[in-house]
Amino acid sequence: MKHTYEYPRAALTVDCVVFGFDDTELKVLLIERGIAPFKGQWALPGGFVRVDETLDEAARRELMEETGLKKLFLEQLYTFSSVDRDPRERVISVAYYALTKPADHRTQATTDAADARWFPVRQIPALAFDHANIFATALQRLRGKLRYEPIGFELLPPKFTLSQLQQLYEAVLGTDLDKRNFRKKVLSYGLLLPLDETHREGAHRPAQLFRFDPVRYEKLKQKGFLFEL
Amino acid sequence: MKHTYEYPRAALTVDCVVFGFDDTELKVLLIERGIAPFKGQWALPGGFVRVDETLDEAARRELMEETGLKKLFLEQLYTFSSVDRDPRERVISVAYYALTKPADHRTQATTDAADARWFPVRQIPALAFDHANIFATALQRLRGKLRYEPIGFELLPPKFTLSQLQQLYEAVLGTDLDKRNFRKKVLSYGLLLPLDETHREGAHRPAQLFRFDPVRYEKLKQKGFLFEL
DNA sequence: TTTACATAGTGTTGTTTTTACACTTTCATG
DNA sequence: CATGAAAGTGTAAAAACAACACTATGTAAA
């Protein structure tokens, strides 16, 4: 107890909405709180920001500590500041959303988290604090971004089939898409490189594998190109 | 000096990028700092967040105090957290952007601000702190939003002509638009109500005045309607 | 009072984009 | 070698977009 200021200060936290996609469903990573308040309840991973780190750094650190997740797409979402959002004291939280592939990372409970689990976005349990609100905001943002920026690839493995991509879009946006039109459009940009590999699975024709070409995307973006699906 | 915490805490500020449009040009409201650091330099209006107010409240309060602006469109932009963005100590700033009509409000210098002035966005002076960065982010956001949400009306008087609207779009987006196509599209949504009034000015044909219909917009939005210009 | 000037206002056509729609291919399995 | 299951492919009609130039209506100056 040795840090003293002239005026009272709010505490600062980061909270992360981590999305994953498992070939059929969009999921979110939640942790079971191991400490009060809301001990035993599900919550978004997150924690206090240290005074010598940026918010991005804090978000990555917390994700690593609480879930073992590393190297994922991470973007700031919104800063939540209701005066009573934390029962302990004034806490302002900067929310992030992250995209990853659940398969890549075995989740692991650590530090403050009693457990960490993936939940389908349609079956989220009651959440601590105002995390239900943060989650809703993140889902809305993800839906918006997916239409206008090529971030869907962050939810897929580096090599993927067009069917997987389409399923992802259908799952996130909650709509059905026409297979032929979807392929025509997504291929028309020339941002997907066909690989010399196919994905064989089950008793049916194997699918061509593609990878996203981020270099070409950057070039096009410079020229005012707008991704849209 | 009586507020003591177990861990060091960053100070929290809000900074506002206030856009205005004066019939030809997009402008930003800047204040001349009356106190150190960066005394005498131009900066975005803003200040410290009090522990008992939300960020939105803080932003509105600071705008009122420093520029006299009230009741304007205000939206959170991004939270900036570089460790060294303030030479005094660790300060994290939540940036907002606001839209208003410069004509409506005589700006007034008050409190911490030695002066407050509108600057065309193409002629912004050197700014204090990382405010140039915040400003660039805000301008980018404004351009993005203008295309996909009907926020342009916030920069115009309640009654406006289609020419004014088009000039606004051209000024903000930095492009030329075809008069006939622009009118066709903007009127096709049925969101502009023609008034029983014309705008007469100069030696030429007077222009029909319109107002934006926010109620109808909300209804359409429910049904999945997407505004786009 | 007439003329010049400035901005408001208006339709059509060719091009591009979007949508709707059904059958063939290729593999694994029984 | 027949069956099932997903992959892959083209066309035509409809809608949206882009390009384009003249008339209408007011004020002010000659």
Summary of the model, kept short:
The first copy, chain A, is 27% helix and 29% strand.
Describe the structure.
- The first copy, chain A, is an alpha+beta fold and 229 residues long.
- The first copy, chain A, is built from five helices and ten strands.
- The first copy, chain A, has helices at residues 55-67, 131-148, 162-173, 179-188, 214-222, and strands spanning 3-5, 11-21, 26-33, 42-43, 46-48, 73-80, 91-100, 113-120, 192-199, 207-212.
- In chain A, strands 2, 3, 4, 5, 6, 7 and 8 form a seven-stranded mixed β-sheet that branches.
- Chain A is elongated.
- Chain A starts with a strand and ends in a 7-residue tail after the last helix.
- The relative contact order of chain A is 0.16.
- The mean pLDDT of chain A is 94.
- Chain A binds chain B through residues 1-12, 48-56, 76, 78-79, 81-83, 90, 92, 94, and chain B through 1-12, 48-56, 76, 78-79, 81-83, 90, 92, 94.
- Strand 1 of chain A pairs antiparallel with strand 1 of chain B.
- Chain A binds a DNA duplex (30 and 30 nucleotides) through helix 4.
Q: What is the topology?
A:
Two copies of one chain form a homodimer.
Chain A: E1 3-5, E2 11-21, E3 26-33, E4 42-43, E5 46-48, H1 55-67, E6 73-80, E7 91-100, E8 113-120, H2 131-148, H3 162-173, H4 179-188, E9 192-199, E10 207-212, H5 214-222
The first copy, chain A, binds a DNA duplex (30 and 30 nucleotides) through α4.
